[in-house]
Amino acid sequence: MKHFSRIFAAAAVSLATAIPAYAETTLTVHYPMPGFFKNVMDTISKKFMEENPDIKIQFASPSATYEEGIQTILRQAGTDEMPDITFIGLNRLRMLNERDVAVDLGPLVKKEGNMAELGFSDTILKLAQVNGKQVGLAFATSNPIMYYNADLVKAAGGDPDNPPKTWDEVIALGGKIKALGNGVDGIDFRWQGDDWMFSALLFGAGGKMLNEDESKVAFNGPEGEKAVEILERMVKEGGMPVFTKPAGEQAFAAGKVGFEFQTTGALVNTIKNVGDKFTLRTAKIPLIDPVNGRLPTGGNAVVILTKDTAKQEAAWKFAKFAAGPYGASVVVPGTGYVPNNELAAKSSDYLGDFYKKNPLFQAGLSQMPLMVPWYAFPGTNGVKVTQTIVDNLSRIVDQSASPKEALTDAASDVEGMLPTQ
């Protein structure tokens, strides 16, 4: 027996030296808004680990919103709690860059060679750049669209096959839907949480947040005045109540609201929540200025945080995979976001036939030529600036301040938060 034991032991040693040790790299990944992204992240990470068995993905506790996400990362920066990878709202990449928290992906992009072959055009790469620096790779991109209850539109005398194309038409029809009674409201406009939907009105009027050198507020100009006037008219004429975000979503899904304006990223959840309670339709969001109007690009980018060289190599593989054609082919049908990868959008292997078969998704896709970056305020007060804007929008919606008064107060407060030149 001892003789055979020695033979087996020698064979085991020989086998161990012949086969290299299995080295596994574990990456901790943080992401926001699990209601939108949990299933998407689980699917992408599972497929990635199948194709890269030497890399394990584990998730940190997700953040409820983009705002909470950036604050969590900034608190954890430089500590053992900081994840290796995070997904950050596109308007908060500037904050990460100013604090030098994110890894510069420029050298990795350059080393990769032709990123366009992977579906990353220069336009797509620029979505996650700050002053020319590649801070991340755009992962989920969205624009605001119109959701509408075709049954209520028809009951109020509208044509579900020809939805409103101007804010005047939306507000007029919203008022008629409100007049139907039975606890029905006309409009839910998602102004809460951040400045994105205000940007949809402001940019849609051809306006900007700050002036060219970012020294002064510009959102209180004529374009901003038109934007907040539309918001007030939604309340006074269009039948929009003071909804919280969850209450608005629930009311629309229950068939109690005619029009809902929010991110196309909520489409899949909305389809599920509506079920067969009414006929759901989607359409382009109106622009105050149809010629010069633009729309903010919502969504997030995958960002590498780890300074460990070995982990950076693994993290780059995951970032390319998540933001690449496979990731996009999961994100779009799993959420409603528009494709941030050209290969995914064009190839029949991914999303080439998807939009023909799923017309509700076409509104967001058709607005992609209008998309401009979600504005990122300079300096350390970005989150406070956003909250200041939201707080003043709230005053318009609850009618405790006039649009002009709220806009003036917001501009005054925000100007005091900007970095001194």
Automatic annotation (TrEMBL):
| One Pfam family of this chain | SBP_bac_8
Organism of origin: Rhizobium loti
| Gene3D superfamilies reported in the protein's UniProt record | Periplasmic binding protein-like II (3.40.190.10)
UniProt subcellular location: Periplasm
Keywords recorded for this protein, A-Z: Periplasm
Q: Which family does it belong to?
A: Belongs to the bacterial solute-binding protein 1 family.
Q: Which CDD domains match?
A: PBP2_UgpB (cd14748)
Top-level lineage group: Bacteria
Cellular component (GO) terms are: periplasmic space
> Which SUPFAM superfamilies did the record assign?
Periplasmic binding protein-like II (SSF53850)
- Protein known as: Glycerol-3-phosphate ABC transporter substrate-binding protein
